[in-house]
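Please fill in the sequence for the structure shown.

STRUCTURE ENCODING:
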């Protein structure tokens, strides 16, 4: 099964973020050729071949095999991942930075922290790939439906207090062999469909 990949290169992100190339990557989740993708998209083969070559140069597509087709050798390629995330490394100095957001209760701060998480995970993934070691992570993903604004406030207060209590219990600055972990808790209204808002 193909992995998920964080795109950290500005050049790779620029190569990918084109409607035609996104459509090509979608169709190359399974091995295919310029001819097969062109047939699916109803586009000239040469045009699709050009885009595939650019995606390959960016490391987003890789050759997997060759096959005889119509008296010719057809080159099969495949996307390098099942899905992609553009990491803030690709945005350089214009990437969101939590340190620049004053209001820590704002949506902007939440976005900036989420961006930092993606940045860190992309770097950790790269290091893990180099050292062949796993990254110790924990993800909690759930939904909670509250009955009222008062209940929402009470939930947020209790959650914050619980996290602070656990952090205080286990935080140890004195251990010479300790490891520091980043912990971010994010709560926002549940989005039921992208582009059409969501309901709490």
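FILLED IN BY: designer on duty
SEQUENCE:
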């Amino acid at each position: 099964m193909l992995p998920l990949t964080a795109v950290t290169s500005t050049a790779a992100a620029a190569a990918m973020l084109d409607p035609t190339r996104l459509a090509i990557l979608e169709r190359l989740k399974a091995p295919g050729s310029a001819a097969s993708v062109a047939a699916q998209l109803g586009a000239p083969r040469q045009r699709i071949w050009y885009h595939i070559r650019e995606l390959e140069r960016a490391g987003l597509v890789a050759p997997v095999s060759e096959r005889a087709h119509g008296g010719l050798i057809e080159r099969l390629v495949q996307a390098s991942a099942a899905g992609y995330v553009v990491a803030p490394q690709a945005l350089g100095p214009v990437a969101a930075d939590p340190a620049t957001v004053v209001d820590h209760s704002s949506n902007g701060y939440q976005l900036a922290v989420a961006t930092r998480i993606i940045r860190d995970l992309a770097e950790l993934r790269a290091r893990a790939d180099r050292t062949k070691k796993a990254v110790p992570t924990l993800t909690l993903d759930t939904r909670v439906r509250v009955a009222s604004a008062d209940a929402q406030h009470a939930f947020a207060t209790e959650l914050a207090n619980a996290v602070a209590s656990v952090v205080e219990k286990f935080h140890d600055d004195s251990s010479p062999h300790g490891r520091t972990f980043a912990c971010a808790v994010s709560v926002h209204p549940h989005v039921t469909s992208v582009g059409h808002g969501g309901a709490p």
